[in-house]
Amino acid sequence: MQVSPTVLVALNNVLRESLTAINQYFLHGRMLKNQGFKELNERIVHQSIDEMKISDKLVQRIFLLEGLPNLQDLGKLLIGENVPEILASDLKLEQRKHDVLIDAIALCERERDYVSRDLLEYIKHESEEYTDWLECQHGLLKDMGLANYLQSQT
């Protein structure tokens, strides 16, 4: 089943963001585990695993459309050095991914590739849930103060 080359480019752009997120979230999770923040580690590593599943769906869709998934193109990792920076970096990545998803969804709609659009809508929903969690953590940090927030995450 062939599709517009622009749809394949858009799907690979989303794949790039997802692959970048896998690496960034996994590293951040393990950094947090090493620092003793078990709760944050578990949530962020779980998100890395979710990104692996999303990447797998994208790879399968690209192959179905007779394209070639690009697993070599990774975005720049935004690595934080402490908890607030880690949360801010992950939020920035999710916002970037959201923008790429919006563009890809609009393209799939124009190209009448509704199956790819539905997959991207699912990914956008997952991204928005993680974004909401990250924004909530930023709110908790602000309301509780850094010391109290960090104590709650050990």
Automatic annotation (TrEMBL):
<dbReference type="InterPro" id="IPR012347">
    <property type="entry name" value="Ferritin-like"/>
</dbReference>
<dbReference type="InterPro" id="IPR009040">
    <property type="entry name" value="Ferritin-like_diiron"/>
</dbReference>
<dbReference type="GO" id="GO:0006879">
    <property type="term" value="P:intracellular iron ion homeostasis"/>
</dbReference>
<dbReference type="Pfam" id="PF00210">
    <property type="entry name" value="Ferritin"/>
</dbReference>
<dbReference type="GO" id="GO:0004322">
    <property type="term" value="F:ferroxidase activity"/>
</dbReference>
<feature type="binding site" description="axial binding residue">
    <location>
        <position position="52"/>
    </location>
    <ligand>
        <name>heme b</name>
    </ligand>
</feature>
<feature type="binding site">
    <location>
        <position position="51"/>
    </location>
    <ligand>
        <name>Fe cation 2</name>
    </ligand>
</feature>
<dbReference type="InterPro" id="IPR009078">
    <property type="entry name" value="Ferritin-like_SF"/>
</dbReference>
<protein>
    <recommendedName>
        <fullName>Bacterioferritin</fullName>
    </recommendedName>
</protein>
<comment type="similarity">
    <text>Belongs to the bacterioferritin family.</text>
</comment>
<feature type="binding site">
    <location>
        <position position="50"/>
    </location>
    <ligand>
        <name>Fe cation 3</name>
    </ligand>
</feature>
<keyword id="KW-0349">Heme</keyword>
<dbReference type="GO" id="GO:0020037">
    <property type="term" value="F:heme binding"/>
</dbReference>
<keyword id="KW-0408">Iron</keyword>
<dbReference type="GO" id="GO:0005829">
    <property type="term" value="C:cytosol"/>
</dbReference>
<dbReference type="InterPro" id="IPR002024">
    <property type="entry name" value="Bacterioferritin"/>
</dbReference>
<dbReference type="GO" id="GO:0008199">
    <property type="term" value="F:ferric iron binding"/>
</dbReference>
<feature type="domain" description="Ferritin-like diiron">
    <location>
        <begin position="1"/>
        <end position="145"/>
    </location>
</feature>
<dbReference type="InterPro" id="IPR008331">
    <property type="entry name" value="Ferritin_DPS_dom"/>
</dbReference>
<dbReference type="GO" id="GO:0006826">
    <property type="term" value="P:iron ion transport"/>
</dbReference>
<keyword id="KW-0479">Metal-binding</keyword>
<feature type="binding site">
    <location>
        <position position="46"/>
    </location>
    <ligand>
        <name>Fe cation 3</name>
    </ligand>
</feature>
<feature type="binding site">
    <location>
        <position position="94"/>
    </location>
    <ligand>
        <name>Fe cation 2</name>
    </ligand>
</feature>
<keyword id="KW-0409">Iron storage</keyword>
<feature type="binding site">
    <location>
        <position position="51"/>
    </location>
    <ligand>
        <name>Fe cation 1</name>
    </ligand>
</feature>
